Amino acid sequence: MCRLLETIRVDNGTADNLEEHEERVTRAQEALFGVRSLRPLSELFHNNPPPDNRLYKWRILYEKSLISMEYQVHTRPNITSLQIVHLPDVNYHHKYADRDFLNSARLRVPSGAEPLLVINGHITDTTFTNLAFHTGSEWITPVKPLLAGTRRAALIKQKIIVTASIREENIFNYLTIRLFNALLPWEEAIELPISAIRI
What we know:
The protein has two domains: 4-73, D-amino Acid Aminotransferase, Chain A, domain 1, CATH 3.30.470.10; 81-198, D-amino Acid Aminotransferase, subunit A, domain 2 (D-amino Acid Aminotransferase, Chain A, domain 2, Alpha-Beta Barrel). It has four helices and 13 strands. The chain has helices at residues 18-33, 41-47, 100-106, 150-157, and strands at residues 4-11, 14-15, 56-62, 66-73, 81-87, 113-119, 122-123, 130-134, 139-142, 162-164, 176-180, 190-193, 197-198. Helix 4 links the parallel strand 9 and strand 10. The chain is globular. The chain starts with a strand and ends with a strand. The mean pLDDT is 94.
């Protein structure tokens, strides 16, 4: 069976963006198992609250049913540069627990850098975040990310970011880049100048 993973930001005793996470779990289970069988995330959270009010990553491992849950204290990653890494066309449309190919990509960049993943000439994601590029007037996120994250879905609904194809040869036309995910809300996203990208 395919093990799936959901990671949810829990801050001050509140689980963030549960609606989007719920939708992703439903899509994954229905696509892979033909049924939504995991108990609602709101129910799991209510029955298994965090130990205190610190900032946590709530890590849920599941297949057709729940395998495990745990809370991990979350610390902000320190990313100062990005390195282009080319990947073959891979299927990561669901958030699988098997991340070996992403871990391998990390081994291909210098210490302190984060891979900027490119598939067939198109910018997709980093190994752990979605991306947005600033044009000077709007924020553009790749139309075909490696994984369509829950934070990305919410930001698109809110019209904070818009989707477009972003090709590798055009990245230096943008001004800055933001890295965001379920644990890094838009207002806390890692923002770097385009000059921080290494080819």
